[in-house]
Design goal:
The chain is an alpha/beta fold. About 60% of the residues lie in helices and about 10% in strands. It has twelve helices and four strands; from the N terminus they run H-E-H-H-E-E-E-H-H-H-H-H-H-H-H-H. The chain has a four-stranded mixed β-sheet. Strand 3 and strand 4 form a beta hairpin. Helix 5 packs across helix 6 and helix 6 packs antiparallel against helix 7. The two termini are about 25 Å apart.
Length: about 240
């Protein structure tokens, strides 16, 4: 056997994630920009990623106006976009259920983190040509959950806040045929998936998820194995790209 056959190849780290605040036109979005710059939320998040993930080039995380409520990864520009319009939507939805300003603020941050790591999943699949055997949207929901639970303080709470937002969206969605054709799972399905995975990671701590009726017992029975399988799968997919 040659040396190249017996020794793992080392990936070269040539890039970093970098935060960019795009030019905005409205005072409301300028206020968002000031809030996120002052909090350092995204800078702290990508600093942790830069210490962990190998990249072949720089990947920009752009916060700005998009003229649509969305967050997305653009494979052409290799950028992750977080739209202020989406932050508006999240804030509006969560304001209906938050009991205090502090609870609302934390819910917005947690939901944004879930969305960001979801888009990070799309970026890593594209950049490192990672295989997926099911729908990519479901796979990156799984990655976001695994990263938050295993690497981020209060990560389980962040996943559950993301789940709560999906449930709120589900209650407002008109289920015509176009909804079933979407590449994403239905918002209600995403809620139950996230609830299952958080429960499955720690059934003792989160037994209330089943006891209080948020997750049917029929689904809960398999959640521990479900979480272990997806965690193992993503850790194996990414092992060559972790510093």
């Amino acid at each position: 056997e040659t040396v190249s056959q017996t020794q793992p190849q080392t990936k070269t780290d040539l890039g970093d994630f970098k935060v960019v605040y795009d030019t905005v036109s409205t005072e409301e979005y300028k206020e968002y920009e000031q809030i996120f710059k002052a909090s350092g939320l995204f800078e702290e998040t990508i600093n942790q990623l830069n210490g962990a993930i190998i990249l072949p080039f720089d990947v920009f995380v752009v916060l700005g106006e998009c003229e649509v409520s969305n967050a997305f990864y653009d494979p052409t520009s290799k950028q992750i976009a977080i739209c202020y319009e989406l932050i508006d939507e999240i804030a509006f939805d969560l304001a209906e259920v938050a009991e205090t300003e502090e609870e609302l603020g934390l819910g917005i941050v947690h939901t944004l983190l879930f969305v960001f790591y979801h888009e990070l999943g799309h970026a890593l699949i594209d950049i490192h040509d990672l295989p997926t055997t099911g729908r990519e949207e479901d796979a990156v929901d799984q990655l976001s959950t695994v990263v938050l639970i295993e690497s981020v303080e209060d990560g389980e709470e962040a996943v559950l806040d993301g789940a709560s937002w999906f449930l709120l969206r589900a209650e407002k969605t008109d289920l015509d045929e176009s909804v079933f054709a979407d590449e994403h799972s239905l918002d209600a399905q995403r809620f139950f998936n996230l609830a299952c995975w958080v429960y499955g990671n720690n059934p003792q701590t989160h037994s209330y998820i089943v006891e209080d009726g948020y997750l049917p017992e029929e689904r809960a029975v398999g959640c521990e194995d479900e979480y272990l399988q997806m965690s193992d799968s993503w850790n194996r997919l990414l092992e060559d790209y972790i510093k």
